[in-house]
Amino acid sequence: MPVTIRDVARAAGVSITTVSRAFNGYDDVGPDTRKRILKVAKELNYRPSHVARSLVLQQTQNVGLLISDFNANRGAHHFLFDVMAGVHDRLASLGYDVTLVSTTTARQRLVSYIDFCTERRLEGVIVMGMRLDDPYMQEVAEAKLPSVGIDLPILSRYCGYVMTDNVNGAKLGMQHLLSKGHRRIGFVNGHQKAAVSVDRMRGYQLALETAGIDSDPDLIVHSNFLVEGGEAATELLLSRAPDITAIFYASDLMALGGMRYLHRVGKRIPEDVAVVGYDNVDVAEWSTPALTTVSQRRFEMGVYAADMLIGMLQRDEEPGGRLLPSELVVRQST
Amino acid sequence: MPVTIRDVARAAGVSITTVSRAFNGYDDVGPDTRKRILKVAKELNYRPSHVARSLVLQQTQNVGLLISDFNANRGAHHFLFDVMAGVHDRLASLGYDVTLVSTTTARQRLVSYIDFCTERRLEGVIVMGMRLDDPYMQEVAEAKLPSVGIDLPILSRYCGYVMTDNVNGAKLGMQHLLSKGHRRIGFVNGHQKAAVSVDRMRGYQLALETAGIDSDPDLIVHSNFLVEGGEAATELLLSRAPDITAIFYASDLMALGGMRYLHRVGKRIPEDVAVVGYDNVDVAEWSTPALTTVSQRRFEMGVYAADMLIGMLQRDEEPGGRLLPSELVVRQST
DNA sequence: CTGTTAGCGCATTCAA
DNA sequence: TTGAATGCGCTAACAG
């Protein structure tokens, strides 16, 4: 039973209307009255109820942060945590609350994720960790609920996205290897149901094309972004094309796995095989040799996603697709 | 303007009360009436407003997930993300919403974090990433708001905690090294304002005592849980005591940094110096050599914290201090 | 089995 | 400059 506006009104000897006005900074309240109200409120420890406020104002100032299948995506903490921090930081500074949502939650409760958001009157949602073949994809795309996807290039009236320029990012990584004289370059991509995989493949191909090198399907393997996947993929790759002198991985974790495998079979890095990763997660810096990689500005991705959503909510801006630039970070693995 | 209970009532030709009852599963609604209501509701795409519901029921089913200084704590994603997943998973499955809160948020808005929770009528809060010297510590400890700390051993009427049994965990790590014949064992602890550091120090000392070895202050260094810190600490440690044959680190990241340093100065692991870490984060498994470590069940910590909070909220249970057992994970660094 | 009434805490007309 | 009245969407007595 928290103290309500009524308690304050009574204690200050005014009507609740006046208290409301005083608290919302209206200027049609006598200076002395206002001061008395604020003083009484502080004494009583009054805090206006956002719940009641939301109901009457018909807006909750609350947005969802959807992590698709949160539990299953725990391995992606290297990427997701920073994005979350960026989203929350910007949203909080603009006075919005952020509610954690996971598609697993919705499934547990047998309601669609849109229903979940609707019940809570969330004003929008930021979506991350979602695959292109996720059953919830349709919902996101067709919903009237304003949303911004992270690495989820869906564009509609209510749906924008933020992602790194993966085509160019992959090109950067590849050009670096090419400039070092490598010609037989393996590519360990992420799973094909990730939007970023499509783009990184494009970048890989483009870089080869520009260099006048024919793409060899034997040099391309799809994996799962994780360490074990990278390890297995590298083994496969080397069995198919023992002559490769460099490998480009679509994630740092896979690169790490790859390096582990290379190490085990006695290949030196970068002398025998040069390695480039993707993401620039903290681990990339710690490995031996330290990993050359293409950086993603994860925190900023979150911030921009929040900005785009707020633009839609507050200024009725059209959602768009925002691409952040990639940058090559050269370390010892190349 | 979502569709309200009134719209449904009108369309179904009943009163809003009946709709309310139908939706809340009361049995005093005629089967045909109920069916009609549900059908109409589905057609209209009606979703009950949690906001209105919260107001009238005087409970929001919403709890806060406080990450102390979210942004500054981004380096701790190896630990925090899994805990969050555990918290959210359990809370969501019990029908609770979870709102992200950070002390930075509160500071930005110039309200205390308790005020933040009060305004939103959060029913409780789970606190993580907080240091013992955090200015918000007092607030947590004295608040009437039910809370559960992760690695924050404060116990009061409204405040419980969940943490790993760090005393025993450290003992396990040390005993492992002792059993391998090591006698001069360095200890790189976390910063002293982390509750876990105190306990791990105890465990370290206890293990030595039991083994009949005098503790040598030269063998103990405090650092910051992170890679760079571990690296610097190791350098310091070796300069003070070049004869150590093993080092116990209070985090895997510091152990990683330590291994990097040892590697650089030509020490072999584990032949010259054996290394044990703490946490069992994913990276520990990927390093070369793979890191022997003391595991923390991060996801479970989150789940138990959620359970404890729910116990306080729903069954008026006393908060307590729950210690999870540690386990030694032996790999190649020892 | 169903409807009428009241009220949750607040913001906002409209009068005074 | 202030207050009384109304309603946001919903639940819960209380009647019928």
Explain this structure to me?
Two copies of one chain form a homodimer. Chain A has 334 residues and is α/β, with parallel strands linked by helices. Chain A has three domains: 5-57, 434 Repressor (Amino-terminal Domain), CATH 1.10.260.40; 62-164 and 299-325, Rossmann fold (3-Layer(aba) Sandwich); 166-295, 3-Layer(aba) Sandwich (Rossmann fold), CATH 3.40.50. Helices cover 46% and strands 17% of the residues of chain A. In chain A, helix 8 links the parallel strand 3 and strand 4. Chain A is elongated and about 85 Å long. At the A-B interface, helix 4, helix 5, strand 2, helix 6 and helix 7 of A face helix 4, helix 5, strand 2, helix 6 and helix 7 of B.
Set down the secondary structure blueprint.
2 copies of one chain form a homodimer.
Chain A: H1 5-12, H2 16-23, H3 31-44, H4 50-57, E1 62-67, H5 77-93, E2 97-102, H6 103-109, H7 113-119, E3 124-128, H8 137-142, E4 147-150, E5 159-164, H9 166-179, E6 185-189, H10 195-210, E7 220-222, H11 227-240, E8 246-249, H12 252-264, E9 274-279, H13 282-286, E10 292-295, H14 298-315, E11 321-324, E12 327-329
Parallel strand pairs in A: 1-2, 1-3, 3-4, 4-5, 5-11, 6-7, 6-8, 8-9, 9-10
Antiparallel strand pairs in A: 10-12
Helix pairs in contact in A: 1-2, 1-3, 2-3, 5-14, 9-10, 11-12
The structure holds a DNA duplex (16 and 16 nucleotides).
